[in-house]
Write a structure and sequence with these properties.
single chain, about 675 residues, alpha/beta, OB fold (Dihydrolipoamide Acetyltransferase, E2P), Rossmann fold, 4 domains, 7-stranded parallel beta sheet, 24 helices, binds adenosine-5'-diphosphate, binds magnesium ion
Length: about 675
Amino acid sequence: MKASGRITEAPGIGAVAAQDLAALGIATLGDMLRFAPRAYDDRREERRARMAGVDDPSIACRITVIGHSDFPTRNGRTLKVAAVDDDGTRIELLCFNRYFLKSQLSIGSEWYIHGKVQRIRGIYQISSFEVKRTREEIGLGRILPVYPLSGRLSEKMMRSAASYALQALSPIPDELPDGMYRRLGLMRHEEAYRALHFPESMDEAAAALRTLGFTELLMMELSLLRKGARTGRRVRSRPSRRERLLLSSLPFTLTGDQLRAADEIREDLDSGMPMNRLLQGDVGSGKTLVAWLSALHAIDSGAQVAFMAPTELLARQHADGAAALLEGTGVRIAFITGSVKGEQRRLLLESLSNGETDLVIGTHALFSEDVSFRNLRYAIIDEQHRFGVQQREALSHKGEGCSILSMSATPIPRSLALTLYAGYSVSTIRTMPKGRIPIRTYLVREDNRESMYRAVGVEFTRGHQAYFVYPRIDDEGESDLRDVTRMFDFLQKEYPGVPSALIHSRLPDDEKMEILHAFRDRKLSYLVATSVVEVGIDIPDATCMVIEHAERFGLAALHQLRGRVGRSTLPSYCFLVYGRSLTEEAKARLSVMKETNDGFLIAEKDLQIRGPGDISGDRQSGFLHLKFASLTSDLELIELARSEAEKLVREDIGLLKAENAVLRREMARMQESGKRSEG
Ligand code: ADP
Ligand code: MG
């Protein structure tokens, strides 16, 4: 390909248009070549008025003008042209601000028209349309690309720029190794770019998108895999002494998935290369236990370990859990949060820096500047999505070659795991510990609550417990507090004599802890809460989760909240209370919740409903900027690109073989254009 010229080379593209094109990320002819239409307008068949329907109100056909009239509008008089198509159907052309058309569209003259009709009192009307003299000019017989526009750009300008780019840059060289085209049934790129802009059939457009989508995914996977490629040896390693101690003290055996995850982490820790691993598994699947096992393994090899949780509440629960679980192992545990201050903090920091503490559990206070370690080699991050990339890194930078285990109860859809998380190794716990009964979920209309309250009341008589959860409505929390307080009063009347507490984000942490301890010790039967109970709280006798205004929560949050119950062998229930006016999206979310308990399935649905941008949170969204492929619908293509990339990295990581030179060149070009769009 010739050195890509500026877009202003294209006829009809001047300085103004160039600015509008720049807003779309198009500066060169090459950019134009790679600019995908957002849709195609299929004008291969003539469409007369009687074919126009609700799902496709467009027409593209010949008309004959039969009369003119005027009607009054705010800006004076507007021209109305009456015409008939070749079926004899009457169409009225409302020519707003186009009075000049009167002399052009003379009575008896024939034209070709394209636009969308509206049927008003039996008459077809059209107000935004093109008229042309010939079939060719109106695009009949062709498929036209429809581009995203900005500023004063028109589709016509875009089409002519695309057409010029294709011609000026021809011959367009291959972007993939020769053999790959044939083996994977892809189009040559010259052909693919032409078909992207000017396809002869919709199938051809789809085939072009497949080739171009595959190419961009392959480039992305390659760059991620080459960066993250682990050159460390695979080692077989065995559980260390303390791990075995913990395993033998457990009243249950680990699930197969837990064992496998523990093995994978252990092998990484022993490989001599820093690990970057994601441990994903549904709420209650037993990730934390796997984390403790791996911590013991690291400690047995002389390392210090840090375990970080997003809230003080959760950190404290983990610290309590670890203290009980690891009691017999002789591990020295410390707990640090922002509220640990003064002399206590000084002593604690000292024990970290001189290595007297083996395992420290805490909040983001762990990466405060004054915290230093003697030998931090392993950081475990619970609920990783609650931390930013920088925060995770800040912690790991406190130790040399520090390995990171990120835990997530929000499973990542496979397409994202293969792309955004390509630099991570992933361990997955899919099966739940034995004996868990799936939670039954009910959707309850707001004005239908009574039977729900009765059902929860019955659970209380069995000694079981419940949560009533309210959404946080604003950041100030004023109105949440009012709502949640009112509901608390109401429930106390509904369940007279049943002990309960109100817990919300404005309570001081120690008060929250007191309430949660009382709840855990079954001194309280229910909690009324704002979403503070979302993360990690583990109370086995809680069997009911009532979520008010469930439509205001996202799928991931709903799933997390529901995961607070069903944490023992007792049957559990989740009630999702919803208001009268539901958006389509909210309806979709609630029905997903009713249908399934499987966090992996929920994550896939979430991706479909919301699109990938929101889900990835803090991950570099640049990777999400795919031009041709879709993270929501091209999983098969993503998997293909991933396996091809893996093969390439295995066989020729430097891309030094002659046949792979083309990939090296393309990757350099991508990096170049990446830099250009950042700068
Ligand atoms: P997660 O962190 O994945 O949400 P946890 O590690 O908190 O889940 O585990 C939830 C509960 O299940 C804990 O009380 C834990 O002791 C228990 N548990 C973990 N693994 C098993 C197992 N294999 N069999 C039975 N119970 C288990
Ligand atoms: Mg957890």
